[in-house]
Amino acid sequence: MQLQVKVVPGASRDEVAGWLGEALKIRVQAAPEKGKANKAVIRILAELLEVPRRQIELVRGAGSPNKVFAVDGRSMTDARRLVASAS
Question: Among 3.10.20.30, 3.30.1200.10, 3.40.50.2000, 3.30.70.2740, what is the CATH number of 2-86?
Answer without folding.
Answer: 3.30.1200.10
